[in-house]
Amino acid sequence: MSRRGFLGKAAAAAAGAAALTGMGWAPAFALPAPGSTGSGGGPVSNLPLPPDFPQDIPLAQQGYVNWAKDIRFDAVWTATARTPDDVVRIANWAKDNGFRVRAKGTMHGWSPFTVVPGENVERTLLVDTMTHLNTVSVDANAAPARVTAGAGASIEAVLTALEHEGLGWANAPAIGELSIAGALAIGAHGATYPASGETVTPGQSFGSLSNLILAMTVVTWDAAAERYVLREITRAEPEITALLTHLGRTFVTSVTLQAGANARVRCQTFLDIPWQEMFAPAGSPGRTYESYVARSGRVEAIWFPFTDKPWLKIWTPTPVKPRESREVFGPYNYFFSDNLPEPVTDLLGQVAAGIQGATPAFGVVQLAAVQAGITLTNTGDLWGWSKDVLFYLRHTTLRVIAGGGVVLTKRANIQRAVNEVTTWHHNRMTELAARGEYPINCAFEVRMCGVDDQAEVLVESAGPPNLSAVRPRPDHPEWDTCIWMNVTTLPGTAGATEYLRELERFMAGNFSGEYATFRSEWAKGWAFTDQGGYRDTEWLDEVLPAAYTAGVPANGNWSAAWASFDAHDPHRVFANSFHERWMP
Questions:
Q1: Is 431 a catalytic residue?
Q2: Is the pLDDT of residue 31 over 90?
Q3: What is the band of 15 on the pLDDT scale with cuts at 50, 70, 90?
Q4: Does the annotation count 108 as an active-site position?
């Protein structure tokens, strides 16, 4: 097929994929409350109004649907804050009237940190942060250089503003449309890890985005005034460490983050390495995963089920454009990964309909679509500013559920850790396929970053984020390496939650002792039972608290974080029923 023909068919298939799977984003409906700003005399909600709500703050009923579509509500009261002071007024109103307040961003998440499936939301108020609380300003002359962003500013908007000043970050999630506050709430990360001998650019960090925070403005309880107020908390203040990754237990209105000199980066694709070679046992020769890490640091492998060769991407800082590379001037260059060709959507429909026998063919055509897309769009070797090659997924990408997590270990253990998980995954998938069971129909993914190293923070720091999944272990300073490994599958796939439960328990048991440790990834699925994620009481009550207590000072551990949340929000206005069950 010609390049033009491929582009045309892929574009035409996009609408088909959305219709077939229901996985395209659509704006939530909004019915304004009678008498509120924005009602304008048109149709209004006929549900009971929140009592005495400030009439000058726009209020409407809107639908809420999370990323995997397993948390969805047809109608939740949603206010649109125009200023940080509006958020303060909403918080005090909620305290006086027995409501909960939840920040609303892009809804790109799996975890029940905003609203909980099945809960009564009659006394829950979402606050839209993205319509107005989205300003971005850069101070390139400060020491260190910094950017201040409203809670609802997208990560893409933040990095675009930094790029205009010659600044950037080493790490960023693959989707730039996420709100900055939402990303920080769960300690979002990227796929950037240092190559052998590489040192960090001053102002940047190989850890989570939370490690870049210099200050944050939050809505907090003032005991003297007996009201909620705005307060800026700096990185030097001890109480900030809990708030840096707060899991939805506070309301951030703006944040200031450090930045460093921007870089030109080359992104290369490799599609010819057998998985047995890439994920071979430690010490093996050849084109192993760790060999690319040593060379470039920034390595991601995407392995579709029942295929022989993963999609390997490596990013390498490259000041001068290589002759072989194609220069790009904006992000999201792998558009084919968001707009699925017709053969993929045909099989996707079968798999989604419960015809699990189509899973092996579905894995093969997913890889074939990538191979064709890379070739026909000439995206196998790209070069540009960092954000333009780091952002490669849009909100229209395939919606999946995910399980797995992050392994903290030392650099010498990279290949061993990756081999152990991929071997387990391959063997288990083979066993289940022999019985006609196919619980996993999308990719296994592995990427890396560093720990939240306080040496990378260029101001006085009270410490790393208490609840960041990549917070270091002081008792194991050699564990400076974080390996993210996740398995993805379509929502509703038979046997999926059982498989993801087995996977996380294997990883937790395997990565222990002096070798490594394992933590769940807050943004994705964890605490699985046969009924779904976030339900396993042992995981919630024992495994997760232990992961943030073992080897961590008492003033920065799990219990200290939750005590800090309650100190800032003693009335638990910024909480939901999941928080209450988890930490009563």
A1: no
A2: no
A3: very low
A4: yes
